[in-house]
Amino acid sequence: MSVKLLRVQRTTQACHRVIAWVVGRLKSAGDPGAQRGHGAQRITRPGVLRVLRLCSVFEPLDHVLALPGAARFDPIGGMQNSTAQLTRCLDSAGVRQIVVTSRLGGPRSQDRAGTHAVVVRTGAPVRRLRQLWALAAVPTVARSAVDIVHAHQGEDLAVLPLGLAAARWWQAPLVVTVHSSARHSVVTTRRTVVLKALGGRIERAVLRRAAAVIVLTPQAVACLAADGVSPRRVHVVPSGFLPAEFSPSPVDPLPDLPRPRVLFVGRLAAQKRPLDLPAIAEQLSPRIQLVIVGDGPQRGALEGRVSRSPARDRIHLVGFVPHHQIPAFLAHADVLVLPSAYEELGTALVEAMAAGLPVVATRVGGIPHLVEHEATGLLVPAGDLGALAAGVTRLLNDRELAVQLAAAARRYAVNHHSWPVLAQRVQGLYARLARA
Questions:
Q1: Distance (Å, whole) CA 431 – CA 436
Q2: Each residue of 120-145: pLDDT tens digit?
Q3: What total of structural domains would you count in the chain?
Q4: φ and ψ at 116, to 5 degrees?
Q5: Shortest CA distance to 82 belongs to which of 99, 64, 118, 58?
Q6: Is the CB of residue 354 less than 8 Å from the CB of residue 417?
């Protein structure tokens, strides 16, 4: 047996021991509504709803991102932006919130989101061991008297046990939003095998005990029902966009770059398959520019592929851009392309649709619930780079079709994905649980 295989086997055995311990502890939590803390009592002020929001990642402030290397410990993606936008909308509605999140490799900090919402970033002297942020979060959680605990689950194992413990401590209902399901969304790879094995077990155990679960698509309701989560406790609230950020005619962020432009927006991570983008560009007409907006762990590998690509002069790596500047890139593009291997929904697609930008995406995860093929965009099989390039070419050559799809997509986004409306639904759920 090779040393590498032996290490994998030992890691797997260790994970199974951790799973058994965690699941055993979770079973002692009991049923929803029967959770009772032993060390504290919830304090309720009439008319003021207080929420503890737990998420391993959260949108940082612009001045923080301007610091050298800041993006490495304050990563940005759809979950980070969605939790921040929800927090701001609820803040405007009078909900008092404490957001506890991580800052791996960076110092502890505290700032605000909106007028009243406090954002506590638990600094940790590591970058890779993301789960350690939950240990640093415990003191803040123990001091934050709240009516609702809302945990946001992405590719993070620690937030769910932390949320369950906080709910028991404060005798408060636990709400969980599943931004990415370890059991049902994450594709099994060498990198994610432990996440699916350990995280999947924790996910199922905690979601069964949560007072309410929020998912992004109807498809997820059926998946959780198969795991024993009652559909009566599952609520569909998709990702959204802030209408105020989409002005009619923003300034072109790349004024010297010719059109047409194909745009990719997202984390440069394996899930999004950014390494496929140079190969897609090579199959497009030489007049077409590819603009890549985002940062992440695969940036170095992507830069290498771009440098070796025959289309390198037409591929433009912009890097990280603060979220409020994304609408300007969308407004001055001609097609958005998303070659993802999996997506719970796809926030970049929601915002492109809101901007009236036609989209070409892979038919994976929750994307078909958002984009209807030939009606609000074009869908192709995952991994089919030729089909992605053909879809982009079709929309660029048939502008009547592109305008038709974009207009229908914008109507759908405005009617179903406006954050102020979505936040009202979440606030209503909070109020019902707090009264129960």
A1: 9
A2: 988 765 556 667 778 888 888 988 89
A3: 2
A4: -115, -25
A5: 58
A6: yes
Residue 2 lies in a domain: no
Is residue 28 in a domain?
A: no
pLDDT band of 321, cuts 50, 70, 90: confident
Q: Based on the domain organization, do 207 and 277 belong to the same domain?
A: no
282 and 212 in a common domain: no
Taking the complete model, does pTM exceed 0.90, yes or no? no
CA atoms within 13 A on the CB side of 252: 11
Same domain, 353 and 221: no
Number of alpha carbons in the 13 Å side-chain half-sphere of residue 232: 2
Tokens of 260: 């047409």
Q: Apex CA 157: angle with CA 155 and CA 158, to 5°? A: 125
Nearest to 102 by CA among 72, 82, 78: 72
pLDDT tens per residue, range 33-88: 444 444 444 445 557 899 999 998 888 766 555 555 544 444 567 888 899 999 99
Residues 253 and 380 in one domain: yes
On whether both 228 and 279 belong to a single domain, the answer is no
Q: What is the CATH number of the domain that holds 425?
A: 3.40.50.2000
Asked whether residue 149 falls in the same domain as residue 205, the answer is yes
d(CA 149, CA 174): 5
Asked if 286 and 391 sit in the same domain, the reply is yes
**Do 302 and 407 belong to one domain?**
yes
Domain ranges, residue 203 = 38-240+419-435
366 located within any domain: yes
pLDDT of residue 328: 96
